[in-house]
Each structure stands twice: as structure tokens, then as C-alpha cells.
Amino acid sequence: MKDLIDIGTNLTAKSFSRDLSQVIERANLAGVSHMGVTGTNLQHSDAAIELCEQWPETLFSTAGVHPHYAKEWTDKTAQEIHAMAQMSCVRAIGECGLDYNRNLSDPKIQRSCFEAQLELAAELKLPVFLHQRDAHNDFLSIMTRWRDQLSGGVAHCFTGTLEEAKAYLELDLYIGVTGWLCDERRGHSLQQAVKEIPLSHLMLETDAPYLLPRDLPDKISVNLSDKRNEPLVLPHVCNALASYKNEKPEDVAQQTSKLARQFFKL
User: Fold this and answer.
1) 14, 111, 175, 240: which has the fewest Cβ within 10 Å?
2) What CATH number does the domain containing 193 carry?
3) How far is CA 200 from the centre of its chain?
4) Across-strand partners of 90?
5) C-alpha span between 243 and 259 (Å, rounded)
6) Structural domain tally of the chain?
7) Is residue 194 within 8 Å of 244, Cβ to Cβ?
């Protein structure tokens, strides 16, 4: 398996600071040719761009503010994200959306920050890299209002139900699938949903260093540091998706990579 694209990684995380070169090399050797570095606030969006400048043939990035950090959003934040989005490596606005699971920012502030970023994406004609957790109804309402103005969107790290997936598909949004698919405790809804989601609307991601698949074989686990997830496990996620969809892994790899190239203009 080769030329896989991991659309969502958190390579700016502290856990990667000591061995990022090796992490990227291991991913490349595993067949992962490109990795998206997620911007979750101003600091991490800027750091993502810096990483892309070091590995321009391998990395691309997003720029945005995660709902956890929505309380940090100001007019100046909007200006800085707008400026970052002019960089050639920035291929989407986000990670943006709603997260009512932890409410680290007030829901009202989250909604305001989300819509401000959708407005920015519409102006810049960039797709959006979306986050939704325990906020489906409000998220869907906002996306329904904005969808016609947006060039595209992907529901990053989707862990929801088939009903939620169908609602996103009706808006012509794409779905990002992670190692959550491999979780025998919490992944049942996703496992059922991916059977019905068209392969034409699916992309692969690891969300590394988070969401390490629970069923990794020893031959992969031995390369991981302290159970930290890495992009090198993406082929395992691909194989899991292929199994649930009753498709050949190479076909899933080819289609998801083709879509990622089109969506992020790689």
C-alpha cells in the first residue's frame, strides 16, 4: 500500500517535538506520502505552517481555531488567520466547529467563532476542516445556512451515527475516518455508518498523537513510542475501513487519496 494521505495529524503537539523527523520518515516508509497538519489555534496554526516549510513535499496544513479555543477569537485573530491562509501550504480553514462535550468555551461563543471562520472560508474560497462533538443539531443548522457559500467541507474525525453521516452527506460534506473505527468499545456507531457512506465521500486520517487504534498488531506497535499514535498506522485504518465496506484495501487507498488530493488541491 502506498501514496496514502493522512488528512488530519497534530504534528505540532509536544509529544512529537523530539523525533518529528523520524515520525515523518516512518510514515513515508509505511506508504503515507502526505500528511495534513491541523491548526487548532493561532499558535498551532503558525507552527503548522513552519513545519510545512521544513517538509514542503510531504506536509500541508490548515489554519483556524478549534471550539475549545473559541473564547480566544477576536477581530485580530480573524486578521491573522486570513494572513496565514495566504500561505501556499494552507489548504483549508479550521479546525473549526462546535464541541459541547467539554464546553471549554461557552457554546454561544463557539457558535460565533464557528460562523466567523465559515465567513472567512467563504471569502477565501477555501474548504473547511470541521469538528463536531455532542453538538450535532446546532452544527447542522449553521452548516445548512452556510453550505452554499462554501467550496467544500470535511467532517474531521467523524465518530457519529449513520443518521448524522447522512445529514452531512445531504450537504455534500466529506467524512474523515480515524482509528476510532478500530475501537471495540466505542466504535460501533462508526462501524455501522461507514458501511453506508459512499467511498466517494470518505477520507482517512489518524488524528495523531491521539486515537491510537486499539487493535494494532505487534509488528506496528513496536515502532510506536509510549502508545503515541503516529501517521504510520494509517494503512491499518485503511485496512479496517476496507473490511467494513467489503472493499479491497488498495481500492480504498486509491479512492481516499484521490479525493484528498482533489479536496486539498495537492
Assistant:
1) 14
2) 3.20.20.140
3) 17
4) 61
5) 19
6) 1
7) yes
